[in-house]
Amino acid sequence: MRRLMMRDVKSVIVVGGGASGMIAAISAARQGAKVVILERLNRIGKKLLATGNGRCNLTNTNMDISFFHGTDPKFALGALHSFDYKQTIDFFDFLGITPKVEGEGKVYPYSLQSSSVLDVLRYEIAALNIMEKCDTEVLDIVPTRPGFIVKTKSGQLKGDSVIIATGGKASPQLGSNGSGYVLAEKLGHRLTEIYPSLVQLKLYEKYVKQMKGVKFEGKVSVGVKDKALRVECGEILFTDYGISGPPILQVSRTAIEQISKGKSPWVEVDVFPQYSKKELQELISTRLAYSGTKPLDFSFVGLINKNMIPVVLQCANIKDIKVLAYEVTEQQIQKIVEVLKNWRMSVKDFNSWDQAQTTAGGVDVRDVSPKTMESKIVKGLYFSGELLDIDGDCGGFNLQWAWSSGFIAGENAAKE
Ligand SMILES: Cc1cc2nc3c(=O)[nH]c(=O)nc-3n(C[C@H](O)[C@H](O)[C@H](O)COP(=O)(O)OP(=O)(O)OC[C@H]3O[C@@H](n4cnc5c(N)ncnc54)[C@H](O)[C@@H]3O)c2cc1C
């Protein structure tokens, strides 16, 4: 076996130039390794540019393992502790990114430009003489004990260690086309079932089309049968196919997981989370008494979105929505309140991978060391980022996982 001499420089090949690949490359190069990033697209970091609506929510100060999911979310603890959100903020601060902490602990660059995060990463990559090879899709990784041969369309490269940081399958237009799963499986790793996460939901109810574009601050629950499984608050948006907005993306994982188990999940919307049913009933009764001879539907103008009014009344089984306000009975008001507070709709499906922000499932973490990110099957091979069976909630948790796992993988891949 070839022994690394004191003067030998370890060569590390990073497959994938996304968030986790870039930080892995930097961390390996800072340990003195000679590093190359192989990226299938024409430039690195394309997905990073799209994050946080172009603002890059790079981490979160309310870090807790409960924001992470997967078959064994605790696997993430090792990397999340070794390179935590404070180290992430310091890492980026050192590169020039002044942190800006917004609501719920979400951290952004003060410039509010994701391009600035990519710019400083690329500057550091160049400063460390890391080679970027774009338009270079990795097709195969062959262990040669010691080292590896990495095969691409345009030739092959030799390296002492390889880090697979190819991302999952979400938003393949930004590079992650699922090819990493093929590479990992071919090298003997198990995969868990993958499905899109942080994605909009399609609903069976055709009436949602009438409310396309309606936005409001509400509460959403997702559940099966009589059991609510997850609840989130925030801006909810109806679309022509169903429902969207940050709280929907957040609960989508739970709904899709249930669909994949053959169950029929529902979403329940609370349009007035700030009022109890009793308070809302009083508010509407007073409003209708005041409206007097105005038509019922018009009596709600100014309280809820106009495009929502006829749908709410239909769902409350009110046949004549033009009935005079004073003629509406208390039972009918109760029905309207029921709809506004517990508006249950059935989840039919979810939007495609193209719309998803992240991937649930992936490389089975039982085959990977949580301390080093090294494969337990192939020595010298490392994994990082979304490719692994770890995914986070909205709020900077997915990027934190990419930074933590990437940094640890790079550091260890560069060691003898
Ligand atoms: C629209 C959008 C907004 C998001 N916003 C946020 C946010 O604000 N905060 C947050 O925490 N998370 C956010 N996420 C999620 C986050 O961006 C990802 O979880 C994170 O980028 C994953 O990093 P990664 O390095 O593992 O994978 P990726 O960033 O997907 O990078 C993988 C890279 O590998 C390359 N590649 C794939 N296969 C090969 C191959 N065979 N050979 C060579 N190269 C290959 C790809 O082209 C890609 O560049 C968002 C995602 C999307 C889609």
TrEMBL record:
Keyword Flavoprotein: yes
Tree of life domain: Bacteria
Annotated protein name in UniProt: NAD(P)/FAD-dependent oxidoreductase
PANTHER family xrefs: OS12G0638800 PROTEIN (PTHR42887:SF2)
Signal peptide extent: none
UniProt keyword terms in alphabetical order: FAD, Flavoprotein
Domain RsdA/BaiN/AoA(So)-like insert stretches: 195-357
Species assigned in the record: Proteinivorax hydrogeniformans
Cofactor(s) essential for the protein: FAD
Keyword Flavoprotein recorded: yes
